[in-house]
Design brief:
By secondary structure, the chain is mainly alpha-helical. The chain has two domains: about 80 residues, no CATH class; about 100 residues, no CATH class. Helix content is about 65%, strand content about 5%. It contains ten helices and three strands, in the order αβββααααααααα. The protein has a three-stranded antiparallel sheet with strand order 1-2-3. β2 and β3 form a beta hairpin. α4 runs parallel beside α6 and α6 packs across α8.
Length: about 220
Amino acid sequence: MKRFLIFIIIILLSALSFVGFNQKKSKKELYDLKSEMKILKNKEKNKSLVKINNETDVTVEEFIYILLNKENKTKKDIETIYLLLPEANYDEIIYFEKALEWASENIDIDHEKNMINFIKLSDNLNCGCSEGYGRDIYNIYKQNNIKFLKYLAEVPNYAENIYGHIAFELHYKDEWIKEKEKLIKLLEHKDLDSREKNIIEKFIEVLDGYIDKGI
């Protein structure tokens, strides 16, 4: 009788494991569909969740991990990664350096939406990754500073963070005086609107601060 009960328990545990496996599998398949995705913020727990197809809630961090590990990423996958990166809690992402490295290597300065989300990422950095991000944002800025500053004008609340990162790199490379001169010339461009000129003028003020202090 005792052996029979043990056998029944083993069968039940196996069945539960099988159900759990199938649930995980179906959950993974649901991720891959991602036909509809909504970001939900839980202010009490300081977490953001992703609702997929109005059925499954997963953490932003988990969803980023899944997309980063897909072998053949679609255009939508890539846009989704950039969309979610600013929403993630980086204290919980042990692979954040990998995520940042991927985002930096795959960013396209001509893709406005991804660029703006990459700029927004500056607000979520921890100290360990701030230096690497600063180098990356500086290199992107140097590719096309007009285009970059136009994107920054779309999200001016992030400008202070970005100024700091770029200014630090300019100072480190002893380029900040030359860059100020280039920015002054940029203000003469006729295709810049008042918001974009304001972004450039404030950046010049930041660089002036470095020059005045003789840093």
